[in-house]
Design brief:
This protein has 3 helices and 10 strands, in the order ββααββββββαββ. The protein is α/β, with parallel strands linked by helices. A hairpin with a 7-residue loop joins strand 1 and strand 2.
Length: 227
């Protein structure tokens, strides 16, 4: 459908094209974000009005609009053991002092550039799933003395020496690093001894149990944690 513009006989406006342009989604995280309190409310409504203060597993993921900023309302989740905030637009981690039972924290597929705020949950946290972000250093993990699983694939770790910082996590045995710049130009088999040189106690690397055997050479492939 074309509409002639009054006073300008030579111009016409394609209404269908303009409408299509208006409906086109904006790339990235530019829409107004949802706050955590609202996300918790939606979770409760979708789970038969469950009390979030009593829930052990809470998944605030793939929301529309997405969560952009973590806030203190998450501290109401006092019983949570597995908290998923993956696939949002979160840019920064925050301390969560009331989450005394938290064991698994999932923040994959966000916009986080730095690991921080884990001091208050370090005594209980055993798994951190934070793949597909923009993290370039491994600072901030030292408080997590019980951490045994770290999913860090598809971030921006560029220096092998960053892995030395993981020696501060004595129970760490399961590590996912595929998709970081340190692996550029290397197969998983070639990267394996370089990782073990920095973190010798790892038992599972990039989803494969390390047996010490000379496994067949494999090409790197994208890795991602479950939600």
């Amino acid at each position: 459908l074309k509409l002639k513009v009054i006073g300008s006989p030579s111009r016409s406006l394609n209404i269908g094209g303009v409408a299509g342009l208006a409906r086109r989604p904006t790339p990235g995280c530019k829409m107004p974000g949802m706050n955590c309190q609202k996300a918790i409310q939606i979770w409760s409504e979708k789970n038969d009005n469950a009390n979030p203060e009593e829930a052990k597993v809470i998944k605030l993921m793939c929301l529309s609009p997405p969560i952009e900023k973590l806030d203190a309302s998450l501290n109401s989740l006092v019983a949570v053991e597995h908290l998923s905030l993956s696939t949002n637009c979160i840019t920064q981690m925050i301390p969560l002092p009331a989450l005394k039972n938290l064991k698994i924290l999932s923040l994959g597929r966000n916009m986080i550039k730095k690991i921080s705020g884990l001091e208050e949950v370090g005594a209980t946290l055993t798994e951190l799933w934070i793949s597909y972000n923009s993290i370039s250093t491994l600072d901030g993990l030292s408080p997590c003395q019980k951490l045994h699983t770290l999913f860090m694939s598809n971030n921006k770790i560029k220096e092998w020496t960053e892995l030395q910082k993981l020696q501060q996590n004595p129970e760490l045995t399961n590590l996912l690093l595929i998709g970081n710049p340190i692996y550029d130009g290397l197969t998983k088999k070639q990267a394996r001894p370089k990782v073990l040189e920095q973190v010798p106690k790892i038992g599972t690397l990039d989803g494969e149990l390390l047996t010490g055997e000379d496994d067949a050479e494999e090409e790197p492939e994208a890795g991602a944690e479950a939600a």
